[in-house]
Here is the input.
Amino acid sequence: MSDNNPESDAPAGKATKPAGSAKQRTARRRFIRSSLLTGGIVGLALLGYLPVARASRTRLRPPGALDEKDFLASCIKCGQCVQVCPVQAIKLGDLTDGYGIGVPHIDAREQACDFSCDAGQCILACPTGALTYDKPGFLAVRRGAHLARLPILKAKEKDPEPTLNLKERMGLARLAQPQICLAAQGQGFKGQARGAGFKGTMRYMDVDRWKPIPVADHPYERELCDLCVTECPIKDAIRLKFVDNGDGVKRAVPEVLEQCVGCGVCEMICPVEAGGMAAIVVDERKTWEA
Here is the structure.
C-alpha cells in the first residue's frame, strides 16, 4: 500500500535529495560568480585600472550639450536623442565611460553628425535640457565655446532660413597628422573615402536631400584631395590654404576656421590614417583661440 511518499520508492541505503536542490545550487553558483565579478570590477575601478569611478575618458557630446559636469548631471540616459538621429551618430556610453555610462556621445571617426536632420532633432527630443539651443543664464559660456554667429548649413543655404540654431561648438577640428594629409602632399584621391566595408552614412545633396546614404556608395575623384572641405556641412568652417614650395607641385593645407562647430564630418570622411588616427580630427570640448 502506497503512502504517497516519494521517498518510500527510493532504494534502501540511498538518501534522496530534496526536490529543486539542483536549481538552488545552480542559482547559488551564478550569484557567487556575479558577486565576484562585480567586486572585481569595483576593485579595479578603485585601483584606477578601469575608469568606472573616475570617468576619466572624455567624449564628443551631441550638439547643444551643456558643459560636461552639467551635462552628466542633467542627462537622464533616456536615449531619446539616439532614436531620432537620422545617421545614428549618437551612441550610449558603456562601462569604460565611468559616470558617463549610458550617456550619449559621438565617435566621429565611425559616424559623425552631419546635421541631416536640419534642426538638431536630438536637442528637440531631449526632455531635460541636457541638450539645448539656449543655455540657462546661470550657466556660464566658456571662453571660445560661443560661435561668433549662427552657422549656415550648406544643405539649407538656398532656403529662406539657412542657419542652424547652434550657439556653442561641440569641439574643434585640428590637422593632427599633416605628414599623411593627401592635400599637403599635393595628392588627389579616387575611390571610396573609407573603403567598401565602411558603415558610416551621410547626406549627399546631389543624391537625396532627406535620405542619408552609405559613404561607401558615393565614390570620389579629386585631382587634389579636399574631402574635409567639400563634405563639411557648415559653410566657412574649413578651407584649403594653398602653399607654394617653389617646386611646381600644387599643395594645400586644411585650415580650420572659427565657424567650425566640431561635428566630426571631416574626421569621418578623411581617407587616410596612421596609428588609428585620421589626418584631421575633432578635439571634443575644444574652444576657439583667436
In short: The two ends are 99 Å apart (CA to CA). The mean pLDDT is 86. The first helix runs from residue 21 to 47.
